[in-house]
Amino acid sequence: MKKRTFIYGAASIAMVALVVMGMTSCSTRDNAFSEETKDVENVPAKLIIKEINVGGCKTSDNKNYSWSKGIILYNNSTTKAVVKNLGIAFALPLNAHAANSNYGEDGVLTYEKEGWVPAGQGLWYFPETVTIEPYSDLVIAVNGAIDHINHPVVTNTTPEGTVIPNAIDFSNADYAMYDLTSSYVNASAYPAPANAAIPCMKAAAFVSANAWPVSIVCPALFLFMAPEDVDLPAYFADENNILTVGGTAKSNTSCKIPMEWVIDGVELYQTINVDKSKKRLPASIDAGYGLYNSQSGYSAYRNVDQKATEAIASNTGKLVYDYADAVENITEPSGIDAAASIKNGAQIVYKDTDNSTNDFHLRKGWSLK
């Protein structure tokens, strides 16, 4: 995607930038660091999707547990990010290897030519301004800001008292996808947050589903930010912005998200269906794809920008190497164990080349355990 600099509050530009302390503009799509970048002291705020763990995991008796899902956003910069009108959605079809009728005869996605991306079936957004410190996470609990390890969602396969060692404790998440004023009221998908102080995201549903149907095998997630003067609930409710893509099935109903609103995107393919998969995100948002699998507890995890990370003076002696948590024969190219380094006090710069083939690998499990 071409370089774009957006001016916060400028009426002539239909996009809001990341609002940063002491700055009035920044690029929302450009990589904060390049191979030649030497200055890591004053990098404009840049939000990225750092980790995706939505496939569920196995219980100790090898049954599937689907509710331990989380997403981590990350401020990949030296500058505090204060953002408004931020949301997250997925492109259709749900799975990359499903039939995809969104391509024209020229082999180009029809909506790409029209300048938008489909937010399939529903999406989530932050109802207030969100602040993320430099080199810091924002953890989102997708299906329950609870301790899924020791207090999982009670179902027929996970009765009360079940312990799921491979699940994730989201009881201290930064945000929960939890909005019972929407149609997303499935009690298993949306248990009340364990801590009432955890702020909740708002949902916009475009079909009559009782839960957000994010793919557990290969989602195409994208992060978007609307201009500050856009009323998001009104935009999502406007029938001019809602349409059916890829046929007439009601399950394909989507909301048109302008491509200039998209600030990051991650396309994932299921490992066993790569040859059958087709892109859902335009190449200008994500030129490649990462790998994923369900019911394994795996995360799609972003690779480290080695040169930029090692250039941070305060990281001396704090970086941990010999990374050993990769699976499916694709590892962290730098050899840096980002999670262990962060616990050691390091600040990590992640790769952001707008190509998930280069930027992501498959990790054994949730990085914050």
List the helices and strands and how they pair.
Blueprint: E1 5-7, E2 19-20, E3 25-27, E4 47-53, E5 57-58, E6 64-65, E7 70-75, E8 81-83, E9 86-90, H1 110-114, E10 116-120, E11 122-125, E12 130-132, E13 137-141, E14 175-177, E15 200-205, E16 220-225, H2 232-237, E17 242-244, E18 253-258, E19 262-270, E20 290-292, E21 299-302, H3 306-310, H4 338-343, H5 356-359, E22 360-363
Parallel strand pairs: 13-14, 14-15, 19-20
Antiparallel strand pairs: 1-3, 2-8, 4-7, 4-21, 5-6, 7-13, 8-12, 9-11, 9-16, 10-18, 11-15, 16-19, 17-18, 21-22
Structure description:
The chain has 369 residues and is mainly β. The chain has a 12-stranded mixed β-sheet. Strands 2-8-12 form a 3-stranded antiparallel β-sheet, with no helix packed on it. A hairpin with an 8-residue loop joins strand 17 and strand 18. The N terminus is likely disordered.
Which geometry do the CA atoms define?
globular
Q: Biggest sheet: strands, sense, closure?
A: 12 strands, mixed
Number of helices: 5
Query: Could you tell me the strand content as a percent range?
Result: 25-35%
Low-confidence stretches: 1-17, 19-38
Structural class: mainly beta
Distance N to C terminus: 35 Å
Number of DSSP strands? 22
* H/E element order: EEEEEEEEEHEEEEEEEHEEEEEHHHE
